[in-house]
What we know:
single chain; disordered N terminus
Amino acid sequence: MRLSASFVNKLPLFSIIGPGVILAATGVGAGDLATGSIVGSYYGTSLLWAVVLGAWMKYIISEGVARWQLATGDTVLEGIVHKAGSWVIWLVLFYLILFSFFLGSALMGASGVALHALIPIFESAVQGKIVFGITASVVGFLMVLIGGYRLFEYAMRACIAIMFITVLITGSYLWPGTGNVIKGLLVPTIPDLEGSGLSWTLALIGGVGGSITLLCYGYWLREEGRESAEDMNVCRIDLMAGYVITGLFGSAMLIIGSSIEIQGTGSTLLVNLGNSLRDQIGPWGRGFFLIGAFGAIFSSLLGVWQALPYIFADCCRLVSEKYLLGKKIDVDTCSLPYRAFLVYIATIPMIGLFHSFSEIQKIYTVTGALFLPFLALALLLLNGRQEWVGELRNSRLMTASIVVILIFFVSMAYRTIF
C-alpha cells in the first residue's frame, strides 16, 4: 500500500496540493469576476452563502471524477463511451469544438481587456483588447507547447498566488463588517425574489469553478502519477484546497462589489471596476486589483489551453480503438491530436476578438450550461455500481448530493437557454 492512513504526515502539503488547485483556478475567469462584482453591487454580502454552495457543488463533481478514474484506471470519458456506446464520442467532439471556440474567444477578450486596463498604450479599447488578446493567446500557446506539464504547473501556481493575494487583500481593505459577512455566509436568503434576485443567485451558484474543464482533472492526475484508489484521500485534500481558494476568491469579489459602484457591461466592466477602486482606495488599489484580475483570467486561459486538448486526444484515441483497430494514439502533451487541438484553440477563436465581447460571453455561458447536467448524470450512474468502482462507490449521502446537483444544473441550463 503506497499511502497509509498517516499519508498526510509523509507528504508535504505543497506536493499534495496541485491538480485540484489548478482545476479550480482554470474555472475562475472573467465570468466569475463580473458576476461576483455585479451581485455584490446589487445585493451586498447577502449572497455569500451562494458562493460557498457553488464551490461545494463543483467539489462534489470533481471528487466523483477522481473516484471513477482511481477505481477503474479509465477516464470518465472512457467510462461513458464504454458503458453508453461510441456515439458519445461524436457528441463530445462536436460539443468540444463548438464550446472551445466560444470559450477561447471569451478568454482572449477578457485577457485583452485586463491588459489594456493595466497598460493603456492604445487609443482604442477595442484595439487594445484585440492586440493584447492575441498576445495572451500566443504566450499561453508557447508555454504549453514548449514547457509541457511542469512549466504549466509552475506558471499556474504563480498566477493563482497573484490572483488570490491581490483580490483577497483588496476585499479585506473594503471589509463591510464581520457581522454582515457572517450573516451572508450562514443565513441563506434570496433578496428581490420576485425580481432578478433568483436569477442572480442561480448564476452565482452555477458560475463557480468551470464546466467541461472538470473532466481534465483526470488527465492531470495521470501527470502527477496518482493512479490507484489509495490516492483518493490525497485527491480529496487537493480538491478541497482548490475549492476553498475558489470560494474565498468569489467571496472577495462579492465583498468588493458590495463596497463600490459597478457600471458598464462586457469589456467595460473590468475597467470601470478598477476605476471605482481607484476612487475608493486610491491609485494603488486600481493597479493592485487589475493585476489580480489578470492573474485570474490568464490562469483560466492557460488552464484551458493545456487541458482541453487532452479531451480531444482522448476522443481520437477512442475513435481509433473503435474504427482503426491496432492504431495506438497516446493521450499526452506530445501526441499529434493534442498539439493539433492546441493550435486550434489558440488561433481560430481569435475571430471572436473582432466581435462583441459581451455577446461572446453570453454564447459561452449558454454552451457551458449544457455540459454540467450531462457530467452529473454520468457520475451518478458510473459511480453508483459496486461492481464497477468497488469500495469507491457513491455513498447514500453522495448519491443524494449528486441528485440535488443534477436537478440544479438542469434547471440552470433551462433558465440559461430559454
